[in-house]
Structure formats: C-alpha cells, structure tokens
Amino acid sequence: MTDSCIVITGAAGALGQAVAQHFLSAGHKLGLLDHDAQRLRTVFGSPAKAVLHAADVTSADSVSAVITQVLQAHGRIDGLVHVAGGFEMGEGVHQITRASWDRMMNLNAWSFVNLTQAVVPVMQRQGGGRIVAVSAAAAREGAALKGAYAASKSALQRLVESLSREVRAQGIAVNSVAPTTLDTSANRAAMPDADRTAWVPLDVAAQAIAFLATPAGAAVHGQHVQLGSA
C-alpha cells in the first residue's frame, strides 16, 4: 500500500498539510497541489516521495497538465483527496451577485468535476482507486449570509453521491468528509472565545480522510462522514 500514489489538493493549507504529513509518515508517494507554489515549497521543502505542483483546480488545462506530471513522476494515481475549496460570508440570498455565486460554485463544486475528469480515467485503467472530497457541515442546511457557500457544498455532496454510483462497479470508491469547525490556528485567532470542545483536531480529520482514501475504506461508497458535532 505504501507504493500507492495519493494526490492532495490544497496541500499547503492547514488540513492539506495534516493529510500530507499523515501519508508521508506512512511512506506513500504524493502529488501535492496548491495554487501557491512558493508556499508549497516553504511548507514541504523537497520530500523524497512527493512532487509539488502549482495548480488552479478550477482550470481544466491546469489540472490536466499537473495530473500528467504526477503520472510521469509516480506512474499511477491510487487516491485523490480534494481539500481545496473556498469559504466566504456573502450577501443575503436576495442580494447574491453572480460573481459571488460563481466563485463559490467554481471553488467548491466545479473543481471536483474538473479533478475527477482528469483522475477517474486513470483509476479506471488501473482497475480502481479512492476519491475523498472535503465538504462541510454547512452542506446540511442553509444559513444566513451563507447561501452561496452552503449551496456549493451541498452541490459537492450530490456530485460525490452521483459519481459514486457511476464508478463503484469499477472499483472506485467516492466519499466525502464534512467537518464542523477545524481546530486550526487561524480559527483560534478568529474565534478566541469559542468553545473548542466540539472542534475537530487536524490529525483526527487526517486519519478519517486517510481511511477513506486507502484500501481500508474500500467498502464505503457515496457517504458523507461528519467530523465533529454540530
């Protein structure tokens, strides 16, 4: 299993780093993608079993080029962990601008379609693979001033369910994790007085993702695993 290759998007972010370190510690080969190439190099340096690539997950050309480079380096892709996404407080639903709507849908829903268009054919040729998307607890229901964000994460979960039903017979497991609040330094700084007892530690989230992204989670299909309590 340690010869497998896992592609991680948003790898330079807090959760992406935790997931990458989990897999690096287990000896996996990695393709680490982020929109910020300099931050990738600052965070990871030059790990022996990982290749680092800048990528725009909303661009088909960018994703296709990077996936080709990962295949050239490692020869296969066994897992995709799609951490990259976006969050912003927005307008009320009756005030949402097209720009806000498109930004959230592109980052949180279209990016998943874009990545799977490049990765699924690889997994089909290999006879299997694992795909894990990072959704959010906000996908369960609407919330004030989060209409576009909640809609985009809900769309992501419907895409996960649909793709799962389309490819599970080919040995490809597709699932998502839906964290509540992640225990990051940024969230602690933004919410210094919050009760953190229900927050999700990054290493715990990484372990849950790793279970779904490796053969250990091969029997799980089309599920949204909630992390933390609402």
Question: How would you summarize what this structure contains?
Answer:
The chain is α/β, with parallel strands linked by helices and 230 residues long. The protein is built from seven helices and nine strands; from the N terminus they run E-H-E-H-E-H-E-H-E-H-E-E-H-E-H-E.
Give the tags.
230 residues; alpha/beta; Rossmann fold; 7-stranded parallel sheet; two-stranded parallel sheet; 7 helices; 9 strands; globular
Outline the structure in words:
With 230 residues, the chain is of the alpha/beta class. The protein has one domain: 3-Layer(aba) Sandwich (Rossmann fold), CATH 3.40.50. The strands form two sheets. Strands 3-2-1-4-5-6-9 form a seven-stranded parallel sheet, with helices on both faces. A two-stranded parallel ribbon has the order 7-8. Helix 1 packs across helix 7, helix 3 runs parallel beside helix 4 and helix 4 runs parallel beside helix 5. The termini are far apart. The model has no long low-confidence stretch (mean pLDDT 95). It holds the Pfam family adh_short. Its EC number is 1.-.-.-. It comes from Piscinibacter gummiphilus.
CATH class: Alpha Beta
The whole-number mean of residue pLDDT values reads 95
**Helix/strand-derived class?**
alpha/beta
Strands, count: 9
Low-confidence stretches: none
Oligomer kind: single chain
Kindly identify the CATH topology: Rossmann fold
Q: Outline the biggest β-sheet.
A: 7 strands, parallel
Give the name of the CATH architecture: 3-Layer(aba) Sandwich
State Rg.
Answer: 17 Å
Q: State the fourth-level CATH superfamily.
A: NAD(P)-binding Rossmann-like Domain
Number of domains: 1
**Spatial shape:** globular
Q: Strand percentage, roughly?
A: 15-25%
EC number: 1.-.-.-
Protein name: SDR family oxidoreductase
Pfam families: adh_short (PF00106)
Family: Belongs to the short-chain dehydrogenases/reductases (SDR) family.
